[in-house]
Amino acid sequence: MKTRPKIVVLTGGIGSGKTTVSAIFKEFNVDVIDTDLISSKLTGKNGQALKKLQENFEPKFFNVDGSLNKELIRYEIFSNDKAKLKIEKILHPMIAKKVEMETLNAKSPYVVQVIPLWVEKNKNLRSKIWKLVVVDCYENIQKQRATNRSKIDASTFNKIKLNQASRLSRIELADYVIDNNGTIDTLEPQVSKIHNLLLNNV
Ligand code: ADP
């Protein structure tokens, strides 16, 4: 029987560099399971979560193709705790199921699960995972990169940050910390080092 791959969780604040770092793990042939991507698929056009979401949220929260309007729902969640709980109750179990499936199907000796809010939501499940890797950078750099990248403006960034753990509380729990204060090319050597340590330990 195939053995279950060991689970490495990659986490970090918004714009810290999780996606960038996970792409480097992929280059090392590590299977990467990205919960943001899973969530986007579930709520995007023809996504499996849409039916349930449409039963629970007004039509104004959906685009013409039926997909979830991410910007609108984000604003709703910021101002309405009940809506936040409701969407989490629908999406989190579906995401967890997909993560489990992708983990079981993985081919590499360990998998990287990218989970943005792991420290906030899952730290009591530490014994379920093998290692925790945190991507870290200063908050001003994080803000600059997050707002440059996307439709997120400074005020939205601040609101998202409010719901996220502090840098220190993540670092305290980490087995490995990736410093992303420098240029992108400083990341590969750090990932390579961690990858080799992990492979020697599997
Ligand atoms: P996260 O997935 O944690 O939100 P990303 O990996 O998407 O963060 O990075 C946020 C943005 O910053 C992206 O546009 C990415 O290309 C850029 N970025 C990440 N690391 C660096 C870096 N070291 N130098 C410059 N830009 C970076």
Defining key terms:
202 residues; alpha/beta; five-stranded parallel sheet; 53% helix; binds adenosine-5'-diphosphate
Structure description:
- The longest helix has 25 residues.
- The protein has ten helices and five strands; from the N terminus they run E-H-E-H-H-H-H-E-H-E-H-H-H-E-H.
- By secondary structure, the chain is an alpha/beta fold.
- The radius of gyration is 17 Å and the shape is globular.
- A five-stranded parallel beta sheet has the order 2-3-1-4-5, sandwiched between helices.
- The two termini are 17 Å apart.
- Helix 2 packs across helix 5 and helix 4 packs across helix 5.
- The model has no long low-confidence stretch (mean pLDDT 94).
- Helices cover 53% and strands 12% of the residues.
- The site of adenosine-5'-diphosphate has 15 residues, from helix 1 and helix 7.
Mean of pLDDT: 94
| Order of secondary-structure elements | EHEHHHHEHEHHHEH
Radius of gyration: 17 Å
Which small-molecule species are bound to the chains here?
adenosine-5'-diphosphate
Uncertain regions: pLDDT < 50 for 5+ in a row? none
The overall strand count is: 5
Discrete helix count: 10
The first-to-last residue Cα distance is: 17 Å
Structural class: alpha/beta
Query: What's the arrangement of strands in the largest beta sheet?
Result: 2-3-1-4-5
Q: How can the largest sheet be summarized? A: 5 strands, parallel
Relative helix content: 40-55%
Shape: globular
